User: What shape does this take?
Amino acid sequence: MAVHMITLFSALVGLYVIVRLILPARMNGFLKAVLSLLVLAGAEKLLLIRALYGTMGAFMPQPVQMAAGFLHAAVFILFLLTLARDAVLLALWPFRRKARRRTIFYGKRERRTASGLGAVALTLAALLLTGYGMKEALRVPTVREVRVQVPGLPPALDGLRIAQLTDLHIGPVFNGIWLADVVARTDSLNPDLIVITGDVVDGSPSRLAPDIAPLADLRAAQGVYLVPGNHEYYSGLQQWLPVFRQMGIKTLLNENALLTVRGTPLALAGVTDKAASRWGLEGPDPQKALAGIPEGVTRILLAHRPALAPDSAAAGASLQLSGHTHGGLVLPLSPVVKAFNGGFVSGAYTVAGMPLYVSNGAGLWGGTPLRLFVPSEITLITLRGNAPSAE
Assistant: This one.
């Protein structure tokens, strides 16, 4: 169902650009046909890759992958720019109509020339924004420091530092060299605990073994914990579980671990992802994940998707940490991404008294390697009690 929705939306994006930008432009029919096919190919890049390779997460040579990603992103940005232009034109239409009746100098030829120049300007803007957006997407993320006030947090846990990594998407685009830099930057923070909230891999262990190896170098006094995202299921979660275990990473599947920090108990719980049901596996269950934890113990729940927050709060979680949204990818699209993720997209929220933090993520799915004004992040979370200590 999701694939069909993506295909339909991509087709609408391509057709809109063609009808509103290419067809009205002053150029010969052959060039219009070539550009129209290029736009459709860019818009339907994921469908074409799926038709050729049987999967949208195909491993193509990196230069081909990047070129295809650039074209796909450029068409998408061009669609947004064209849509914005048309919205402005629609708002100005009554005034332009009056002005047109008062002049005799603005003929058909001039209108077509202006239309052509506008199309060129929008295309150049789209290419520049795509180049910038891809550069932002592919860089090693900076550290974002966040303080989260947790109700009822014991004084001994005040100041606990948690490094959160999410949406690494190691695969065709984000490789081992990039991951080694991310791991080194994370370790340099000297966190008490490291958590990984899903979408770590895009591919099988046999294909990604060298690229994923740097994860074994993650170090924290209280250990490294992981919950799966939807892409772990697409990539064969059961094959990945022993790999993560060999790396010293503990995977939480609707279960919890009781830690002792500065002599005080702390429960860390994690849930599966709803994509599990497609493979006949157990879906996310906050109640089960938090079961058996002694009364009064602070409970941190890891869940890939932030939309689970109301259920987590109802189950008694003290804090939920999530990813999945990539922060919305492109700033103007944040409201759309928010609508599809339970009203959450980036940063801190409070849900029924429970704090929720949604990270923008460190990487991106290689199908659309683009970030515009939504920076990637390695998140360093400092826990604070009801009365934060002075600094």
